[in-house]
Amino acid sequence: MATDPQALSPDRQQWWSERWISVLESFGWRRRMERARIYVREGRVLTLEFKGNQVHAQVQGTAPAPYHVTLHLDAFTAEQWQYVIDSMAQQALYSAKLLAGELPPSIEEVFTQAGLSLFPFTKFDIHSRCNCPDPVNPCKHIGAVYYLLGQRFKEDPFLLFQLRGRTKDEILRQMRHSRATPESQPLPPPPLLTYTPPKTDARFWQYTAPLPADLVVLVPPGQPDAVLSVLLPLPHENAGEASHLMNCLQQMYNTASLAACQLAMSEPLEPSD
């Protein structure tokens, strides 16, 4: 497959295509990549095809028969892809851009948030082979495939995803499914609890029978009040006012406690008319 040399001009490449090449050159392969660029301009990459997440290419070298090049990246797991696709499905921008043949620059952040890297992170992330006699990897033939892949990514950004294990149809199908699945609805708030006091007459609070002695526990007034001791600090803006209010409550409890003791030790009151 011959390639138009003008198709690789930097001003016509998209950012993800340039990023692919810049990442590879950052691995210290700049000199070999320059020689590989000449191979691409001369149309020496005869075929280039994807088989799953693997790339197979025929590159014409100096020998009569072309050399066979294969390469692939480590594919992401199903769980990793599910996280990425669910994240992309939450924003319509990604669906619109991908269908238009574009990659928004923020796409890398989606993979980063999942602890992944869309582009090769190190040179060990790329697994490539060539049957030429050159012992150095990448050789000119592998480098030529790298460059041509950058051009193919420009034409179809989904091919970059395919190197990571998901085809265009699989990604779009999963994105449609994620967008169509209704999110779990939040539970409605519980109804407000209201208290309605029972309807009673004036004698409801009167108890005329003597209390059994074994049920009466007298607490001498002046001891720390059990109820007040377990309360949290009163939520008052003024600490002095909160302290004053607590003292008032303690006095009320002491008064009530004393009255209860006197009532328990006295004769039952006669019911009033």
Describe this structure in words.
This protein has helices at residues 15-41, 78-89, 92-99, 107-113, 140-155, 158-162, 168-180, 226-229, 239-265, and strands at 45-51, 54-59, 67-73, 126-130. It folds into two domains: 5-180, no CATH class; 213-265. 44% of the residues lie in helices and 9% in strands. The longest helix has 27 residues, at 15-41. With 273 residues, it is an alpha+beta fold. The chain has nine helices and four strands, in the order αβββαααβααααα. A four-stranded antiparallel sheet has the order 1-2-3-4. α1 (15-41) packs across α5 and α2 (78-89) packs across α7. Mean pLDDT is 77; it is low at 1-13 and 267-273. Keywords: Metal-binding, Zinc, Zinc-finger.
Name the features.
alpha+beta, disordered C terminus, 2 domains, disordered N terminus, 273 residues, 4 strands
